[in-house]
Amino acid sequence: MVVKVYGPHCASTKRVLVCLIEKEIEFEVVPVDVFKGEHKDPDYLKLQPFGAVPVIKDGDYTLYESRAIMRYYAEKYRSQGVELLGKTIEERGLVEQWLEVEAQNYNPPAYNLALHGLFPSLIGNNPDPKVIEESEAKLVKVLNIYEERLSKNKYLAGDFFSLVDISHLPFTDYIVNHMGKDYLIKDRKHVCAWWDDISSRPSWTKVLELYRPPI
Ligand SMILES: N[C@@H](CCC(=O)N[C@@H](CS(=O)(=O)O)C(=O)NCC(=O)O)C(=O)O
């Protein structure tokens, strides 16, 4: 059964798409136009009751939350494609730790910068400069910790590429390439080297090429 991935043009969905490509899992996409409110349609809400993208359908199995979907496929297809969960329980612990750091500390300010800076129509066309300023200040604190971590490890979970790095790709692409805030990444030597490495992976460049962000 081919996996159906809903909302490929959205950032969170791109985490899932990159994971599927790295694991060599066949998929098809179902476009969802969030600017037309298609993610709030009754039929979509039956799949994802919170009205957000992505959601996947794999036969009778439905799953939402991009990081949960990534973990599911990284585990289910452990024996194929790139190992994305580390090789030992200690490495897995670090993958889980840094995935939480990304979800709890990095993504919220990055998401706010994207909403207020790139997609104000999704918030009633009322971008708030104070939110932008506060979000950038939060990101600076997080990125300073990343700089120290990445001065000792090639990737965030350790010296191995993992779901953690995939999870950072979509919103960091917005920051570097669409917001004029590339200095947040490029002014930090080790963060910059990490970004250059992970954003040059064929899985990411392919997803960007196939499913252009709605900017
Ligand atoms: N925690 C969710 C977040 C999903 C999410 O916020 N999706 C956004 C799209 S994107 O910002 O990730 O590109 C969305 O549906 N936004 C529309 C809405 O929330 O109404 C996940 O990781 O799947």
Could you tell me how far the N terminus lies from the C terminus, measured between alpha carbons in angstroms? Answer: 32 Å
Write down the CATH class of the largest domain.
Mainly Alpha
Strand order of the main beta sheet, please?
2-1-3-4
Average pLDDT confidence is 97
- Mind summarizing the main beta sheet? 4 strands, mixed
Please state the second-level CATH architecture of the largest domain.
Answer: Up-down Bundle
Q: Give me the strand/helix succession.
A: EHEHEEHHHHHHH
Helix content: 40-55%
Number of domain modules: 2
State the total count of DSSP E strands.
Answer: 4
Beta strand %: 5-15%
Query: What structural category do the secondary elements indicate?
Result: alpha+beta
Q: What small molecules does the structure contain?
A: glutathione sulfonic acid
Main location: cytoplasm
Domain GST N-terminal: 1-81
Organism: Cicer arietinum (Chickpea)
GO molecular function: glutathione binding; glutathione transferase activity
Give a quick summary of the entry.
The protein has helices spanning 11-22, 42-47, 66-76, 89-117, 129-150, 163-177, 183-186, 189-198, 202-210; strands spanning 3-6, 27-30, 55-58, 61-64. With 215 residues, it is α+β, with helices and mostly antiparallel strands. Strand 1 (3-6), helix 1 and strand 2 form a beta-alpha-beta unit.
